[in-house]
Automatic annotation (TrEMBL):
<feature type="binding site">
    <location>
        <position position="265"/>
    </location>
    <ligand>
        <name>dimethylallyl diphosphate</name>
    </ligand>
</feature>
<feature type="binding site">
    <location>
        <position position="222"/>
    </location>
    <ligand>
        <name>dimethylallyl diphosphate</name>
    </ligand>
</feature>
<feature type="binding site">
    <location>
        <position position="99"/>
    </location>
    <ligand>
        <name>[4Fe-4S] cluster</name>
    </ligand>
</feature>
<keyword id="KW-0560">Oxidoreductase</keyword>
<protein>
    <recommendedName>
        <fullName>4-hydroxy-3-methylbut-2-enyl diphosphate reductase</fullName>
        <ecNumber>1.17.7.4</ecNumber>
    </recommendedName>
</protein>
<keyword id="KW-0479">Metal-binding</keyword>
<feature type="binding site">
    <location>
        <position position="77"/>
    </location>
    <ligand>
        <name>dimethylallyl diphosphate</name>
    </ligand>
</feature>
<dbReference type="Pfam" id="PF02401">
    <property type="entry name" value="LYTB"/>
</dbReference>
<feature type="binding site">
    <location>
        <position position="265"/>
    </location>
    <ligand>
        <name>(2E)-4-hydroxy-3-methylbut-2-enyl diphosphate</name>
    </ligand>
</feature>
<dbReference type="GO" id="GO:0046872">
    <property type="term" value="F:metal ion binding"/>
</dbReference>
<dbReference type="GO" id="GO:0016114">
    <property type="term" value="P:terpenoid biosynthetic process"/>
</dbReference>
<feature type="binding site">
    <location>
        <position position="44"/>
    </location>
    <ligand>
        <name>isopentenyl diphosphate</name>
    </ligand>
</feature>
<dbReference type="InterPro" id="IPR003451">
    <property type="entry name" value="LytB/IspH"/>
</dbReference>
<feature type="active site" description="Proton donor">
    <location>
        <position position="128"/>
    </location>
</feature>
<feature type="binding site">
    <location>
        <position position="126"/>
    </location>
    <ligand>
        <name>isopentenyl diphosphate</name>
    </ligand>
</feature>
<dbReference type="GO" id="GO:0051745">
    <property type="term" value="F:4-hydroxy-3-methylbut-2-enyl diphosphate reductase activity"/>
</dbReference>
<feature type="binding site">
    <location>
        <position position="222"/>
    </location>
    <ligand>
        <name>(2E)-4-hydroxy-3-methylbut-2-enyl diphosphate</name>
    </ligand>
</feature>
Length: 280
């Protein structure tokens, strides 16, 4: 029987996700007769996306033929620079819900890559990364891990600017900087990892050290949730779930203390359902 359930303080929606969803909710309320699109999934959580689909919100992309009067919301991950410029030329209403931390990263990369090669630590197929890369003004080198960077040939005669996807592993980002210094690579490092991401990962690690088992709640396609699972896996056995339906209570009953953390795109009601099921 589970004796104790501990929840990480910062589990659930981050500031950027909350802002994006508030903007979408307001657009739905204020424009009952308009077609509303998000450019790609507004956040990486299937349950939230289903709720908005039921409200009539459609998911569009760069190939969607928007009609005059349509409302198009730029999601929290941001979009490529060229796509945003193309949208502004159409007779549609654009609502920019890009996370402020992502927008800051885009602008920093745009400014600092003018005379430097961009080294970007991020997931190749992630929508935020595609947007960040579009702001680069020079050559680009994209890598997903320190291990991948070790296999790349960098030119010690060039100037580099190092940046990261906002939800990347902060500790690995520090390790990357240490490696570049040891290789005598000339670079400047941009502070683009969201502090909320760093704090959430630290909390998850500290919690994992105290418990017998960790549960990570959030979308399987959510990059920041997958990284939470990765960091806690070093300290405790864990399970990454999207909803409480995936819990095996018989299996979990052998653990006396269970810790719970959740990704930045995980709604509070899903976290509450997990806790309630464990308590039952």
């Amino acid at each position: 029987m589970t004796q104790n359930i501990l929840l990480a303080p910062k589990a659930g929606f981050c500031m950027g996700v909350s802002l994006a969803l508030k903007k979408l909710d307001k657009a739905i309320l204020d424009n009952p007769n308009c077609k509303i699109y998000t450019l790609g999934p507004i956040i990486h959580n299937p349950q939230v996306l289903k709720q908005y689909e039921q409200k009539g919100v459609k998911i569009g992309d760069d190939k969607t033929h928007f009609q005059p009067g349509d409302i198009v919301l730029i999601r929290a991950h941001g979009i490529p620079f060229g796509l945003e410029q193309n949208l502004k030329q159409k007779q549609i209403k654009i609502i920019d819900a890009t996370c402020p931390k992502v927008k800051k990263a885009q602008l920093l990369i745009q400014e600092q890559s003018k005379k430097r090669v961009l080294l970007l630590y991020g997931e190749k197929n992630h929508p935020e990364v595609k947007g960040l890369l579009s702001y680069a003004q020079n050559q680009i080198i994209l890598f997903e891990s320190l291990q991948e960077l070790l296999n790349l040939q960098l030119n010690s005669n060039l100037e580099y600017v190092l940046a990261a996807q906002t939800t990347q592993d902060q500790n690995e980002f520090y390790q990357i900087q240490d490696y570049l210094k040891r290789q005598n690579i000339s670079f400047i490092a941009l502070n683009t990892i969201c502090n909320a991401t760093e704090e959430r990962q630290k909390e998850a690690i500290e919690l994992a050290k105290k418990v017998d088992f960790m549960i990570v709640v959030g979308g399987k396609i959510s990059g920041n949730t997958r990284r939470l699972a990765k960091v806690v896996s070093k300290y405790a056995p864990y399970l990454h779930i999207e909803t409480s339906l995936e819990l095996d209570l018989n299996e979990l009953s052998k653990y006396s203390t269970i810790g719970i953390t959740a990704g930045a795109s995980t709604p509070q009601e899903i976290i509450d359902e997990v806790i309630l099921k464990l308590k039952k």
